[in-house]
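[Solved] Which block belongs to which protein?

Original post:
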Amino acid sequence: MSAELDLSLGPIAYEDTGGDGPVVVLLHGLTQDGTLWRHVVADLRADFRCVVPTLPEGSHRKPMRAEAELTPQSVADLVAEFLDRLDLTDVTLVENDSGRAQTVAVQHPERLARLVLVACEALDNYPPGLPGKLLVLAARIPGGLNAVVRLLALKSLRRLPIGLGAMTKRPVPDEVVDGWLEPLLTDPAIRRDLRRYLLGTRKGELVEAAEGLRAFDRPALVVWAEDDLLMPRDHGLRLAALLPQGRLVEIADSRTLIPEDQPTALVKALRKFIRDTLRPASSGPEPTRPS
């Protein structure tokens, strides 16, 4: 089911597979939308209720309110508001690439049963790598963001280190990438939203969030890519060590976007983690999967 919620920052589109299974909320990164999770959702939906919002991080179709504060912090607050409005409880919150789920877990843990951090920004790694640095630099230059997005949209450059070549080992289908970039290419208000978000980043906020994870007393899984070029391998180790119930899984033959490079391995890790940490009294019977 495709739907939309009108929240404090503006309208948020989302996909909801429905059903009575444990709730898994999946968050994407910058200049992506919920289609990042298409392979993962296709597998999980038989046993889990998958809810996938498209956050205002550059690939959203409708602009946020011009007067609304749009920063990484406000987007973390928006995720909490989204969970509240849908009355989602015992949520497994999963995020790839971006680092906002850490802030949600620290500041708004009330609806979370468990946390999954998948190859994401953390600690002092912001902006991560050349693609992130290009976007942040472009946001500070009049017209710069438009120029960089048009550069990233060139199909001949998509596999280079300035773009998705730094984030995946396998090409993301052009139609998926086109969908991610179209709002930025066609709507100045979406570029305005992304610029506000990038300029609203506060130095040290992810360091503070990581330290706050010491108090997150619920099951947590850190999934890291062994061949990641953007997210340092030791950050996965450090995040898992900071979390009181943290555990680490490393995925071979993948870069940052594990849902694109190794969705089957990621699903296997998610299923095992949720199965091992389900609370029967609140979540019902463990999900089953035909062999």
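(Second protein starts here: sequence line, then its structure tokens.)
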Amino acid sequence: MKASKFSDAQKAFILKQGADGIPVAEICRRAGISQATYFNWKKRYDGLLPTEMKRLKQLEDENGKLRKLVADLSLDKEMLQDVIRRKL
């Protein structure tokens, strides 16, 4: 996935402008982002501080690694059970 060119603080500032009542079209024009990007950020980060955004990303990364680990272990377990079935 492509890394964002905006920092968490910049994203928080852009979202805060929307909360302050500035029209979304104006915010997007100033920031150089699409309205879809703005609303995706709003859905994901609305109300979070930059430190909380960073923590959220860390937790999502950790969750992805754990999911991969569980999938690998499940596959290993299935293979071992298949070997046991064949021997018996």
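Accepted answer:
You had them paired correctly. Confirming on the second one: The CA atoms of residues 77 and 83 lie 10 Å apart.
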